[in-house]
């Protein structure tokens, strides 16, 4: 059964906005990325999502396809973003079956809570490889298609009018705000996302002359996501919610709307930028969460982070 569109996209955008366009998304079965892709599909695009888990990725693709009658959504599982051939094979399949790649969402990521003392070298490297190397591989594999799409959808340099064919040749990197001020138990992700941000900025400069735009969306705490459940301990969730400037968390629709803005003609002159969608969360005082994890007392105990939903019992 198709989800109500109000759950993943605002009624601001016109139907058919992305007709005859193709979006390629890594981590596309995740809660946030699937909403981004679903919004694009609802507004006319076809899509290819990739992930590690075959069943989860293929199931998510079938579900996303219900957003619009006649939509084509391919789910490619068993893809390791750390391996360039794995990404390249998925890109080739996408282009063969859907005809092009006009938009890319680099959303594959890994995260867990751990202090630097708890964090092994291998665990740190794993997050760096998934986030930074994975984003780089995604960019490398899709760039020829983004350049081709950008060339087809140029803004007229004299009249500054958008192409009648719409927009294309754009990439979004899904990042975070953790590294803006420093966040306890998130050194690995903070370093990785800082690298992703630098990659996007470089891509904007190097490929802007070819018409390609590159931007970052940095979500804050988004409700009903695995990340929020895993990273905010259950015993402080209520207090953390109350502490937000807007008194609530964001929704996946907020991230999807930001995606539509950047990919449509509204974002034609936006590149090399970071669009923070966090309700001013990161501007609050640093120091981590409250309650049983009050900063710096909890760090000084040397204990592992407790009460984290979905926490894996593995060696860090």
From TrEMBL:
Catalytic class of the enzyme:
oxidoreductase
Q: Can you name this protein?
A: 2,4-dienoyl-CoA reductase [(3E)-enoyl-CoA-producing]
Catalyzed reactions per annotation: a (2E,4E)-dienoyl-CoA + NADPH + H(+) = a 4,5-saturated-(3E)-enoyl-CoA + NADP(+); a (2E,4Z)-dienoyl-CoA + NADPH + H(+) = a 4,5-saturated-(3E)-enoyl-CoA + NADP(+)
Q: Which UniProt keywords apply?
A: NADP, Oxidoreductase
The keyword Calcium is assigned to this record: no
Task: Fetch the Gene3D superfamilies from UniProt.
Answer: NAD(P)-binding Rossmann-like Domain
Q: Annotated Gene Ontology MF terms?
A: 2,4-dienoyl-CoA reductase (NADPH) activity
EC identifiers of the protein: 1.3.1.124
Q: Name one Pfam family in it.
A: adh_short
What is an annotated GO biological process for this record, any one? Answer: fatty acid catabolic process
Any one GO CC term of this protein is: peroxisome
Q: Which lineage do the record's taxonomy fields give for this organism?
A: Eukaryota, Fungi, Dikarya, Ascomycota, Pezizomycotina
Question: InterPro entries in the record, alphabetically?
Answer: DECR2-like (IPR045017), NAD(P)-bd_dom_sf (IPR036291), SDR_fam (IPR002347)
* Species this protein is from: Aspergillus candidus
Asked if the keyword NADP belongs to this entry, the reply reads: yes
């Amino acid at each position: 059964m198709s989800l109500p569109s109000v759950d993943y996209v605002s009624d601001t955008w016109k139907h058919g906005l992305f007709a005859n366009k193709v979006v390629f998304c890594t981590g596309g079965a995740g809660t946030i990325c699937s909403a981004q892709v679903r919004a694009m599909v609802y507004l006319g695009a076809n899509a290819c999502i990739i992930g590690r888990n075959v069943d989860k990725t293929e199931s998510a693709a079938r579900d996303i396809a219900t957003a619009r009658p006649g939509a084509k959504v391919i789910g490619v599982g068993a893809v390791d973003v750390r391996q360039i051939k794995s990404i390249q094979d998925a890109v080739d399949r996408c282009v063969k079956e859907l005809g092009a790649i006009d938009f890319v969402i680099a959303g594959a990521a890994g995260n867990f809570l751990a202090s630097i003392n708890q964090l092994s070298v291998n665990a740190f490297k794993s997050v760096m490889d998934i986030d930074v190397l994975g984003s780089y591989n995604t960019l490398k594999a899709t760039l020829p298609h983004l350049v081709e799409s950008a060339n087809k959808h140029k803004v007229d340099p004299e009249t500054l009018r958008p192409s009648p064919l719409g927009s294309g040749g754009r990439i979004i990197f899904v990042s975070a705000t953790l590294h803006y001020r420093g966040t306890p138990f998130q050194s690995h992700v903070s370093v990785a996302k800082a690298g992703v941000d630098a990659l996007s900025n470089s891509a904007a400069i190097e490929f802007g002359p070819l018409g390609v735009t590159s931007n970052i969306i940095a979500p804050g705490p988004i409700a009903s996501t695995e990340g929020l459940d895993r990273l905010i301990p259950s015993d402080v969730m209520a207090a953390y919610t109350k502490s937000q400037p807007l008194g609530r968390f964001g929704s996946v629709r907020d991230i999807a709307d930001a995606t539509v803005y950047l990919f449509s003609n509204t974002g034609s002159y936006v590149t090399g930028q970071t669009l923070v969608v966090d309700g001013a969360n990161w501007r609050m005082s640093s120091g981590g969460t409250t309650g049983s994890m009050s900063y710096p007392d909890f760090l000084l105990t040397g204990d592992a982070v407790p009460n984290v939903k979905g926490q894996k019992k593995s060696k860090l």
